[in-house]
Amino acid sequence: MNLKKMFEMQKALDERIIKEKGLEGQDLLPNTYVALDTELAEFANEGRWFKHWSKNQKPCTKIEHFCPTCDGTGDENHDINLQYLEEGHATEPYSKCQDCNGSGKMGESNPLLEEYVDCLHFFLSIAIKKSWQDAMILPEEAFSEMKNGFEGGLSGVFLEMKWMLLNSYMSKDQSTKKTSFMMAWGLFLSIGTIGFGFTWEQIEAAYMDKNAVNHQRQQEGY
To answer: 88 CB contacts (<8 Å, ≥6 apart)?
Structure first.
């Protein structure tokens, strides 16, 4: 992952939000920690591994999006034909939808990966606010040992990550804060790359896409 580029992009987004929302001079670190904690919960919800009460514990990694023009039918005359049928008339012949080339689909998304990079946004923001960027530059060897298995399962590692993250905010010792943040980040990377098999390329591309969406939201008055 190109963390240097991500830091630059995240800083630009954060500065834009602060300026456009009139937040200059405010301590936004507590809010950023709460935001990250919330996004981690949303990520876990899409991961589903902890839902022992459910028959479906598979992660939500694929959602197909249907074409809004033809309502997923692939027929450009779909809306007209529905109206004709309601009125008791004969329908027009099938005409391939040009927007989806008759497939009825407009691509797919990975909700789990999307939630993961939402978390990544706030990890970056915290590092920038605290000048902890170097704590996020970890060699793969720093967490490769977890490839042999997660002690206590994925839930155990997830809870340890959350504990480390909270400690990076609550600890009285500044060096402990930074070390805890680094460990939380390493565990986060482990969960994504080892636990769910995300590649660095996937994570970076998804981050770029969501960063653009976040800028667009600001443009639209989100």
So the answer is: none
The verdict on 80 and 91 lying in the same domain is yes
How far is it, in rounded angstroms, from Cα 73 to Cα 121?
37
User: Which distant-in-sequence residues (6+ apart) come within 8 Å of 93 by Cβ?
Assistant: 77
**What are the tens digits of pLDDT across the range 161-182?**
999 999 999 999 999 999 999 9
Residue that the structure tokens 């992952």 belong to: 1
Q: Are residues 155 and 141 in the same domain?
A: yes
Residue with structure tokens 């459910």?
Answer: 54
At residue 14, the pLDDT reads 96
The tokens 């839902």 sit on which residue? 51
Domain-ending residue, one of 77, 107, 137: 107
CA distances from 170 to 25, 52, 186, 220 (A): 22, 31, 19, 36
CB contact at 8 A, 117 and 203: yes
